[in-house]
Write a structure and sequence with these properties.
Distance between the termini: 79 Å
Shape: rod-shaped
CATH architecture of the largest domain: Orthogonal Bundle
CATH class of the largest domain: Mainly Alpha
CATH topology of the largest domain: hpI Integrase, Chain A
Structural class: alpha+beta
Strand order of the largest sheet: 1-2-3-4
Amino acid sequence: MPLTELQIKNAKPKTIPYRIVDSGNLSIVISPAGGKLWRWRYRYNGKAQTLALGKYPAISLAQARKLRDEAREQVDAGHHPRRVRQAQKLRRMSEAENTFESIARRWHDLRESKLNGKYHDQILTRMEQHVFPMIGSLPIKEIIIPDVVKVIEKIGEKGTIVTAKRMKQYISQVFRYAAQRGLCEHNPAADLRDILPTSKKKHHACLPMEEIPTLLQKITARDNDLGKIAMQMLSLTFVRTGELIGAKWEEINWDRAEWHIPAERMKMKRPHIVPLARQTLDVLRLLQKITGARPFLFFSGASKSKHISNGTVLMALRRMGYKNRMTGHGFRTLASTILNEKGYKPDVIERQLAHEDEDKVRSAYNRAEYLLERKKMMQDYADILDKFRMNDGAEIIPFHADAVQKVAG
């Protein structure tokens, strides 16, 4: 005879466990401690089996009967209910472990060897600020397109369109990483081209060409402090400011007139060679008299173990009257513009600017093949700057609006 809720509630414990039988081989076992546990008996491959269905009253009589019926369907379909339950438990555990945040951190760790530490850390910081609070705790396989759209649009609403686009790219890479490992079936960030407005490119401030002679003359007229020498080195080498201020004397090869920047200090973690023109060597010899006993070319006055900050160059330019009109990065823009106008090969210029070449085979070829051309180009460029400085702009090349080259990062 089928059980009732009243019978179950009134069942009292005994000195030994006993069971009360319901219909369809379902029963409830009463323990000496008063616990009431659901059990279902069945046969699988001819052998008697027992399946635990949970504890009363957390599992009611109606719920127990439903679980029994589901288990019976599994047996009828040739499945072992206990194994099905174990597989479901493992699946739930896997989903709990494979949240978007946990997988994104694994993806981020994998990229560590490919990027400069500063940019590598920056990616995770932005994920923690913009993405993890919204979808980080969700199992990655459950995230759908609208979830990603909400994240991207929220960043874009703050006016940071460039950041929003970068985060969309990073999110897409995380999903691609997960899909390759069987952790999700699709990439909801793969095709979201039109969810953000286009933003105007923000270029680093750089003076008009006709003002360059005056800038160079003002730099030359300054006292020989680290700000002046840093600006001279930026103008002659057009490296990134971060690459300059972290330079060490051990990186300078005086015999070959080359500056070898190791991969770990480059934005794209690729070693870079800067040919040193005669004028650049002169600047370095002067700087050596000041900081030659220290590891860094541009040591910090506050600590023997540290170099100057990015702000040193900006502050020097600001004191010279170029606030918001010229930056350390502007020297890269200037070099790109002049050298392209002068007809140097774009590949040679781009390689000297240490821009990433998407064709890895071509990139490796460029590193070896273009060095002699780059040496000549760097000396020619140093001579051009001398003419600008000495002739008060008489040697300035024609400046065309479409000549400014995109100088990223």
